[in-house]
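Hey,
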Amino acid sequence: MAALGMAGWHGGMCDAFRNNTTYQWMTGGQWVAHPGGCVTYEVNIINRDDPITRGVPDFKITSEQYYLHVDPFQ
């Protein structure tokens, strides 16, 4: 059996099909809330040797945080 990739954007991945547990297992969780609304936090680059992150400094961003119900065993 071949594995397939899956991509989505924003709430479409974890807030769609709220009554379909099979879909939630496939996406790995279900969206619950944006605690605190928009907050500012710092993104710290861990692997600075990777070609994608090479030269990218740590930075701050203001955005929504997502609180999800997830299955830690997936």
